[in-house]
Amino acid sequence: MSLLDTPSTPNPSSVSNRQLAIRYGAIWGGISILLTLIGYLTNTDPAMSTTGPIKWVYSLASFGVAIWAIAAAIKIDRDQQLGGYISLGRCVGLGALIGLIAGAIGAVFSFLYMTVINPGFADQMKESMVATYEEQGLSEEQIDMALSMASAFTSPAMMAVFQVIGGAFFGLIIGLIAGAIMKKERPYNAA
Question: Nearest CA to 111 among 25, 33, 43?
Fold first, then answer.
């Protein structure tokens, strides 16, 4: 009878998913770096255009990698580490941690990209913003005001900070959605 009384699944609080988060956060961050370098080397940087098919391709690829990384990590955590069960909260936490790691990797690269690899990035971004504002019919004064407000948020350091925060938030949202689909609560008698 003692075999039936012993739970067959591990206690989630005793199973760490940090290594899983580091692995999949690094994969997500690495592929994001690769996409940025491809855009830079092929002169199709999606940050320089606000519309068009190239922007869509890069956006879809980025979203696809993020969704895959978090869903794969949740599946491994659920099926291989937790005996087939995972709570929504653990999925959200894992997604946020993966996003935080990917965002931190991306932030370091982004800072290097804007200061070493492509030091003219800020000027290119400014030109792109001016062209967009002119297409919208803004006056010279309105464009200058918009650029002065945007300049505080487009410095390499601020963009790196926003990338870390954005990565964690985006990971949290994906973890919430994937968790709502992939969660499998443990029966009360299993723990």
Answer: 33
